[in-house]
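Mods, move this if it's the wrong board.
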Amino acid sequence: MPDTRKDSRLRWDKAEKTLELADFSLDVEEFGGFRLAARVSDFDFDPERLKQAETAPGRIDRVSFNLDNARLFTAFIVPTLLSQLPADADPAPAIENYKKMATAFIDGLPAENTSQDSKAALKGFVADFPRPRGKYSLELSADPGVGMKELKGFAGLTAILARTKIEATRQERKVVVE
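Not the wrong board. Structure tokens:
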């Protein structure tokens, strides 16, 4: 059985009204791992406000995601994504179409918020799909932060992206065949 390590650290500062997920991670030997971190400001735990997205308190200031993929993403996430495609057809053309759309979306990200290196890293992940191998990182930081109600649908996506800095890296993993 592979060695598995998991960790999570959550901090709530009531006076500052900040909620910080300092680390939510999982590492599985031979599969790789992931780490998620985030910071939310203007947040409180008012049960009435938490019930609906329109009144949910908080603004997402920063989200970072790191993936060290040996097989973790391919084994656990890709099957779920592929299951959304029609079962009676070859998925390859649909995957290629989604990859083209994702690449065009990445190319359209504002240059002032997303460097060419970050765009190349994101496009590398897309090109490697459905079998990305390597270490990937993605950090999104918005100023001002993104309100919870702004996350409803795609209508405000352009405005959100206009104020969101996107940093991404990609480090390929050599595949060793024995």
